[in-house]
Amino acid sequence: MANVTVIGAQWGDEGKGKIVDWLASRADAVVRFQGGHNAGHTLVVGNTTYKLSLLPSGIVTGTLSIIGNGVVLDPWHLRDEIAKLEGQGVTINPDNFAIADNCPLILPIHRDLDGLRESAAGAGKIGTTGRGIGPAYEDKVGRRAIRVCDLAHLDHLEPQLDRLCAHHDALRAGFDEPPVDRERLLNDLREIAPFVLQYAQPVWKRLKKVRKAGAKILFEGAQGVLLDVDHGTYPFVTSSNTVSGTAASGSGLGPSATGFVLGIVKAYTTRVGSGPFPTELDDDTGQKLGERGHEFGTVTGRKRRCGWFDAVLVRQSCAISGVTGIALTKLDVLDGFETVKICTGYRLHGKILDYFPSHAADQAAVEPIYEEMDGWRETTAGARSFGDLPAQAIKYVQRVQELIETPVALISTSPERDDTILVRDPFVD
Ligand code: GDP
Ligand code: IMO
Ligand code: MG
Asked: Measured between alpha carbons, how far apart are the two ends of the chain, in Å?
C-alpha cells in the first residue's frame, strides 16, 4: 500500500490540510481529485499560516502537486492563490505543479448562477460557498463545460459556447439577468489562457510514470463524506463525490491506486451551511467548542455550527468510504470539559436506529442517544506521543475507535504540523 487517500469523514473542515501537509514530506506526489476552491485547508508551520483552497497542500513542502480532472478549476482564483503563496515564499512552477488538461473550468457565469439561486431559494437555501461549484459540475455532466485544454483552442470554441450560452441565457432570463457577454468571456479566457496552460498536461500520464517508478502518491480529498452528492445529507451537500473512490476517477488512475484510506475525523462535530445536524448544540457547550476550536470557515468566514461527536455518522462514513484507519484531530479542543458526550444511536418516531437515514425529513427528525464520559483536566495540546495523553483522553480515543469500528492511525493535538501522534504509518503496510 504505497499510496494514501485522505478524505474528510464528517462535514468537512476536519483538519485534512494539516494532515496532508504532515504526510506530504513522506510522499512523492500530492493530488487533488474533486471539489474546487470551495475547500479551505489551513496549514500551520512554525509562525506561518498557509490557507489553501485549490492548490494541493503538498505545494508547501515543495512536493509535486497535481490538480486532477475531477476538480473544477477557477483559473482567476488559481492565479490569485499562486500569487498569495509565492508572496509567502512558496515556489510554484511547472516542475512541481501540474493541472489536468481535461479539467473543467469554473467561469464567472457559474459564480453568478450560484449566487442568484441561493438568493432565490428561501428556506431551501443550501448555504453554498458561492464559488460556482455546483453550476460548474452541472455544465460538466451537461457536456457544456469549457475545459483547460480548450484554452489552447479558443478559436474553435464557438460550437461549445453556443451550447453553453443557450443553456445559461435561458436560466439568466429567469432571473431577469442579461444574456452571457460572449465577447467578454472569450477575452477573459484569452487573457488567462497562457497562465493556466504553462501547467496543463495529461496528468494521468505523469501519474502513471510516477507510479511505475514506485513513488508514493498522496490523494487529498476536499469536503467530507457527509457532503458527498450521493451519500451525504442531500440536498445539503456539495456537487461532487467526496468518497475515497473518487481518487481514482478524479485523477486518471485505477481503483487499486487508492491505497490506505485515511479518514480525517474531528474529535467533535462541525458543519457550515444549512442541513441536518443531529448532535448540534445551540447552548454554551456548543459556543465553547466553537471558541476553543476557532470554528470559523476558512473560505467564507462563517461561524461553524458545533456539537458532540457523532459515532453513528462517522461509522457510516468509514464504511461507505472504505476507511482503513482514521486521523483523529482537534482532541485538544476537548481539554478541560468536565464530561464529554458521544452519540451512539438515534431515536426516530419511537424506533432506535444504528444508521443515518437517507431522507432529509428523517435526518432532521432523529434524536441523538448519548453516552457520557468523564472528561480530562490535563492538557493534550501539543502532545506528540501516546504517553503524553491523560488516561481519560486515551479512553475517549479508544471508545471512538470501538464505536466507529475503525482503528486510529494518527492523532492531532494542535494546528501545528508536528503536533501529531503517529500510531500507524499509513504509507507502511
Ligand atoms: P480542512 O478543511 O479539513 O483542511 O480543515 P480546516 O483547515 O478548514 O479546519 C481545521 C482547523 O483546525 C484549521 O484552522 C487547523 O489549523 C486547525 N487544526 C487542525 N488540526 C488541529 C488540532 O489537532 N488541534 C487544533 N486545536 N486545531 C487543529
Ligand atoms: P473543506 O475541504 C466545509 C459546504 C458549504 C455548503 C455545501 C455546498 O475545507 O473541508 P458548495 O459551495 O460546495 O456548493 O457548498 O458544502 N462546503 C464545505 N463545508 N468544508 C468544506 O471544504 C466545504 N466545501 C463546501 O458550506 O454547505
Ligand atoms: Mg476547510
From this structure: 6
Question: 37 catalytic, yes or no?
Answer: no
Angle at 290 between CA 287 and CA 293, to 5 degrees: 145
Tell me how crowded residue 384 is: count the other CB atoms within 10 A of its CB. Answer: 14
- Ligand with smallest separation from the Cα of 43: 1
CA distance 281 to 45: 32
DSSP H/E element including 212 = helix 203-212
Q: What is the SS3 assignment for 169?
A: helix
The pTM score is: 0.97
Pocket test for ligand 1, best of 7, 42, 300 (most atoms within 8 A of CB): 42
| Contact yes or no for 9/323 (Cβ under 8 A) | yes
Q: Which residues of 15-33 are buried (b: 16+ CB within 10 A; e: fewer)?
A: bbbbbbbbbbeebbbbbbb
Residues with Cβ < 8 Å from 119, sequence gap 6 or more? none
| pLDDT tens, residue by residue, 98-116 | 999 999 999 999 999 999 9
Instruction: Give phi and psi for 395, each to the nearest 5.
Output: -60, -40
C-alpha closest to that of 372 among 395, 405, 406? 395
Query: Average pLDDT, stretch 10-34?
Result: 97
d(CA 65, CA 263): 20
Quick one: cell of 127? 448555504
